[in-house]
Structure formats: C-alpha cells, structure tokens
Design a protein that fits this description.
The chain has about 325 residues and is of the alpha/beta class. Helices cover about 40% and strands about 10% of the residues. The N terminus is likely disordered.
Length: about 325
Amino acid sequence: MNSPTAPAETGARASSRPTTSDAGNWIWSNDERLAGRPGVPEPVPCEFCGALRYHKGILLGNRILWPPYGAERCTCPEAVAAYEKAKAEREAAEAAAAKAEEEKKMRDRIKRIVGESGMGDRFLRRTFSTFQLTDDNKRAAAAARRYAEGFDAMLPQPGRQEPGRNGLFIAGPPGTGKTHLAAAIANHLIAQGKPVICMTMIDLLERIKRTYSATGGSESDVLKIYKTVPLLVIDDIGKEPPTEWAISTVYNIINGRYEAYLPTIVTTNYDTEALIDRMTPRESHDSMTARATIDRLMEMCRGITLTGQSWRSR
C-alpha cells in the first residue's frame, strides 16, 4: 500500500512546514522523500540480510508523524532471533532489578522489626569454612553446602512447578554441629544479599511477646516477617515452653510458610515422636496441633541427621 502524499504547500501553510529539528519529528510523506525533499528518515538496511527497513509513519490530518523509535524490525530469521534474545535479556535484567529491590525492602523490614536477621554474634561466626569436618559429619556438611549453593531453586517461581521438599530438618544429639550448619547456610545467603531470619525457637517467640508491651511494635508485623521471609531458620525447636500459646504460634508460622511454599530450616535434638511430645501443651495434653506442625515440617523438609560425639565434651 502506497504511503499518503501530503498536499502542495501554499502561502502561510508553506512557511509553517516543520523541519527535522522540530520536537516530535513532523515531516512529510515517502513520496516527498523520493522527490528528494530533505528531512525525511531514510530506510535502514537489515544488519543480517541487507533488506531495507522503512520507517512507519502515522497519518494525522495532512501531515505524517514519524515516531522517533526508528525503522520497523526486519522479519528475517536472524533478525527475529536477535530481537528475541535482546528482549529476553532486557526482561531478565528488569526482573533481576525488581527482585533485588524486593530483597532490599525485605532486609529493611527485617532490620526494623527483628534486627539484623535476628542472628547473634555466635551465629554470625558459624560458616562452612569454620565447620570442623569429621567422618561422622562430612556427609551432612556436604548436603548443607549443596543446599546453600542451590538455594534459588528452593524458592517458588511464577510459572514454575512448585518446589517439593525445599527445607531442611536437621536432627541429632546436642553438640554435633546442627546449629553450626544451619547458621552457615544462613550466613552464606546473607553474604549474597538474600533476606534470612535465623533465631532460636525461644528467641523467635520472645520477639513476638515483646510486641505485647506498649513499645514492642506490632505482633502482626513480626508474624508477617516470619511467614514471608525467603528463608526462616529455627534453631532448637522443641526447647520452647510447651504452652497452648507457644504451639499455636509455632503452627501459625509453619503453616503460613507451608501454604506459601517457602523454605524453612529447623534444628532439633529430638526425633519426630519425641518432638511431638515436647511440643504438646502441658495444660491440655492435646497433641493435635503439635502433630500437625511436625507433619507440615516433614512434608516441607528433607532430613539431615548428625551423629557422633558432642564437640562440647571434647
């Protein structure tokens, strides 16, 4: 289809003809370009096949607007592939920037509500490089390191199948390195800028209790952080006082993360049945909520078992 031709210029009309310096790039038609009139965008050859790529004008009244985004894309296979690659790279960069911004917002919320990841100095010093390997723990240490290095695959992603067991249930006797490995995972991810909360079960509950004071902040804010942080590490589950409030709160947090497919790491000195008994409220002796909590964790987490002599007794 031929491009429309602008009418001849006469009188005052001719004196108002736009030039290439005009904002908006108002110029005339392709027919005028062929007639040698200045200021009309020239076709651009495709860098792959050499075919000419023409600018597409927009007819407005008796003038044509040539948008500043350039000539139309070529439809040769090489040009299409290059465009799709550039588009994918641009979208990936935008997604990465958006993710980084969301992670920063989450880190800021964690700092404001629970402090820097909730980790004390003892936790911060526990890394993979300071973990002492033995024949008893080297397989557990290797599994923990693989988890940390492949953590991105543990997070739910739009359009991707939901992750299965994307958490860890680290069990074993006291002093065998459970807390060290859990903290090493947390420190590995924090060093990459990922938002993580790593606290003992007792400290986690105490932080919620502090919200009940006049200056303690909002309980809902703390619970929301626990439920939505990309990784929650709970050390020494089963050591908390077995009250109705405690087990109800723990279930609330674990179930929230279960529903959101978010990874959780727990450490404990107990096997599952002993842990259910430890978490059963002494007031009612009703183990239903404790059992539901552990069932959730078993569905969410892969097991790592540590054995051997306690480092504290060496």
